[in-house]
């Protein structure tokens, strides 16, 4: 448990630390981790405001996590809560005032809000103390709700949150809200970039790119733990990869509508033009100034390469698009990258993109049954895809399915 001095020191560096996280999903995980550590709490959740509703967006629960096998993650359902005084989260969003409840099973009957016991019944979890705080922007708007559950002594005994906890966590929530607002703006900018591609190619929806980004992060994290990467490296790369993956097809903005919107199959010439979207996307990040630029280049350029070397665009100079001499054939064309010549991020997004494309209904096709999609992915191991990454992908299907449900095509892209 942190001392008061440690809490003050943590608050001092928290703004800097949180503002280094660019992706909103990765940031919410970090906010909850820090918030729970701050007051030694067992669980917590974040709700994000969308007009007159709160979206249950992210959660952590150490007790439930300990029931899982090593390496597994908590799967949770997303839902919405009306912003009114009937629920605890809705009350805090409606009033802008924090609620510090020592036992949610003993709420005074004169209070307008009630605790929903369904989650506890379904999971055999016991919620007691709950501290619910508004996430208020610098303009005074309610961005969402931060809820911290079951403060604990070092022995594990559940206790109430103190008045000091409440005051300290209000400062914490203010810092977190600033970082979250900035990350949401970053996400919005990325989605606007993809909206340009969507105007050209209706397959490139905000939901599609969010799903691909979510899948990619889960595959990467499991790969990284298998290869003994440090937690700091994993955290940094998850943040970068999540955003870079969303821009995998951004180069389509440079492809003619006559090709992008053609209802039938491409002829050979059209297909060659279409393949250039990988190069055009990479060229957007040619003046690389950050690790994100490097990751976005890797993803855009390499997500159509194949493990067997039959993909595209192959070994090319990004600036000119011409084949590198040492990798060109007698016809002057670039040889495709094969196996680990393909950068890791490109190999990861290749699986994520194909899985989502086959799983999703498009104007020109119905969604495939999941069993057929998985059979296609397995069949591609060692040919189209990195076989190790296919194994990893198949081992985390529950997480993949939860991401599918969260980012549905008609859902919000918060």
Polypeptide structure, described:
By secondary structure, this protein is an alpha+beta fold. The protein has 2 domains: 4-183, GAF domain (Beta-Lactamase); 201-406, Orthogonal Bundle (Hypothetical protein af1432). Helix content is 49%, strand content 11%. It has 16 helices and 7 strands. The protein has helices at 4-18, 24-39, 62-66, 88-95, 118-123, 163-200, 206-226, 231-246, 257-260, 268-274, 277-283, 291-302, 344-359, 370-380, 387-395, 397-406; strands spanning 41-50, 53-61, 80-82, 99-101, 130-136, 142-152, 158-159. Strands 1, 2, 3, 4, 5, 6 and 7 form a 7-stranded antiparallel beta sheet that branches. The protein is elongated and about 80 Å long. The model has no long low-confidence stretch (mean pLDDT 90).
Q: DSSP helix count?
A: 16
By secondary-structure content and strand pairing, the structural class works out as alpha+beta
Could you state the oligomeric state of the chains shown?
A: single chain
CA-based gyration radius: 23 Å
Unreliable segments of 5+ consecutive residues: none
Strand residues, percent? 5-15%
CATH architecture of the largest domain: Orthogonal Bundle
Count of domains: 2
Taken in chain order, the helices and strands follow as HHEEHEHEHEEEHHHHHHHHHHH
Q: What characterizes the major β-sheet?
A: 7 strands, antiparallel
Strand tally, please?
7
CATH topology of the largest domain: Hypothetical protein af1432
**CATH superfamily annotation of the largest domain:** Hypothetical protein af1432
Assign a percent range to the helix content.
40-55%
The first-level CATH class name of the largest domain: Mainly Alpha
């Amino acid at each position: 448990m942190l001392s008061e001095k440690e809490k003050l020191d943590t608050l001092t560096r928290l703004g800097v630390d949180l503002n280094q996280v660019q992706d909103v999903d990765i940031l919410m995980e970090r906010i909850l981790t820090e918030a729970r550590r701050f007051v030694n709490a067992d669980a917590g959740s974040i709700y994000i405001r969308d007009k007159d509703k709160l979206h249950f967006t992210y959660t952590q629960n150490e007790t439930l996590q300990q029931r899982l096998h090593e390496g597994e993650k908590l799967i949770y359902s997303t839902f919405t809560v009306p912003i009114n005084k009937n629920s605890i989260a809705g009350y805090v969003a409606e009033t802008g005032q924090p609620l510090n409840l020592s036992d949610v099973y003993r709420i005074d009957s004169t209070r307008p809000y009630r605790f929903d016991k369904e989650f506890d019944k379904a999971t055999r979890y016991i919620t007691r103390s709950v501290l619910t705080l508004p996430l208020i922007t610098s303009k005074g708007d309610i961005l969402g709700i931060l809820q911290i559950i079951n403060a604990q002594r070092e022995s594990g005994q559940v206790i109430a949150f103190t008045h000091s906890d409440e005051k300290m966590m209000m400062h914490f929530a203010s810092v977190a809200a600033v970082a979250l607002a900035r990350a949401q703006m970053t996400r919005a900018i990325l989605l606007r970039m993809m909206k340009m591609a969507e105007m050209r190619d209706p397959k490139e929806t905000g939901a599609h790119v969010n799903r691909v980004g979510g899948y990619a992060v889960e595959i990467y994290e499991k790969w990284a733990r298998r290869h003994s990467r440090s937690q700091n490296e994993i955290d940094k790369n998850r943040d970068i990869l999540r955003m870079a993956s969303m821009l995998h097809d951004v180069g389509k903005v440079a492809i003619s509508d006559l090709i992008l919107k053609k209802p039938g199959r491409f002829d050979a010439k059209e297909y060659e033009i279409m393949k250039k979207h990988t190069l055009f996307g990479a060229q957007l990040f040619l003046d690389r100034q950050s690790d994100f630029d490097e990751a976005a280049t890797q993803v855009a350029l390499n997500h159509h390469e194949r493990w067997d070397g039959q993909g595209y665009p192959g070994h090319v100079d990004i600036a000119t698009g011409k084949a590198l001499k040492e990798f060109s054939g007698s016809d002057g064309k670039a040889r495709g990258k094969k196996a680990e010549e393909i950068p890791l991020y490109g190999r990861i997004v290749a699986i994520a993109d194909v899985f989502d494309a086959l799983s999703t209904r498009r104007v020109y096709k119905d969604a495939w049954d999941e069993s057929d999609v998985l059979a296609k992915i397995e069949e591609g191991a060692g040919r189209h895809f990195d076989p190790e990454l296919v194994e990893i992908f198949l081992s985390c299907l529950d997480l993949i399915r939860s991401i599918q449900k969260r980012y549905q095509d008609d859902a919000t892209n918060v």
